[in-house]
Design a protein that fits this description.
By secondary structure, the protein is mainly alpha-helical. The chain has a single domain, classed as Up-down Bundle (Four Helix Bundle (Hemerythrin (Met), subunit A)), CATH 1.20.120.1760. The chain has six helices and two strands. It has a two-stranded antiparallel sheet with strand order 1-2. The longest helix has 26 residues. The chain starts with 6 loop residues before the first helix and ends with a strand.
Length: 163
């Protein structure tokens, strides 16, 4: 395990820790902290792969840890954040659809990650969409539709160029 703790993986683990913190902050209804931690997860995710590739240390192990961390930070954490704001039956179904699409999206990426494009919206944008809902104070009644919309985008067959 010691061999696998490289700089890129350190950023991945910071992403995971921030995502877990977002979940805890959401459960305790500290929503501002939850949003800050979600932004920290986004920043860490922006750098983890780049750091590993720049150092020539990108590995299959790192790709898997990154996807597992992304599932927590950008799949599960946004769903719990939403649930703590609106927990109707319809909303819970929307969160489940969103999490399912996130898992599908990450599995597809792990199989096809060597392509020069993404298929479907990257999971990080799921978190961005949810942050936009909160920052713009969109009424909670509309949130389930946004979660489903995000799920459709993640599961879509559209190609998006990698930057």
């Amino acid at each position: 395990m010691r061999e696998e703790i490289k700089l890129g993986n350190l950023f991945t683990l910071l992403n995971l820790a921030s995502g877990f913190g977002c979940i805890l902050a959401s459960i305790t209804e500290n929503f501002r902290l939850a949003m800050v931690l979600l932004v920290i997860s986004l920043i860490c995710d922006l750098f983890d792969g780049r750091m590993a590739r720049r150092a020539g240390k990108a590995t299959a192990f790192g790709t898997e840890v990154d996807s597992l961390s992304d599932m927590i930070s950008f799949g599960l954490a946004p769903a719990i954040f939403g649930f703590m704001h609106l927990s109707t039956k319809i909303a819970v179904v929307a969160y489940l659809i969103n999490i399912s699409a996130a898992a599908f999206r990450l599995a597809r990426y792990n199989v096809l990650h060597k392509l020069h494009y993404f298929i479907g919206m990257p999971i990080t944008w799921n978190a961005v969409i949810i942050l936009i809902l909160a920052v713009l104070k969109i009424p909670y009644v509309y949130w389930p539709a946004a979660y489903i919309f995000s799920a459709v985008l993640m599961a879509s067959p559209f190609k998006i160029k990698k930057v």
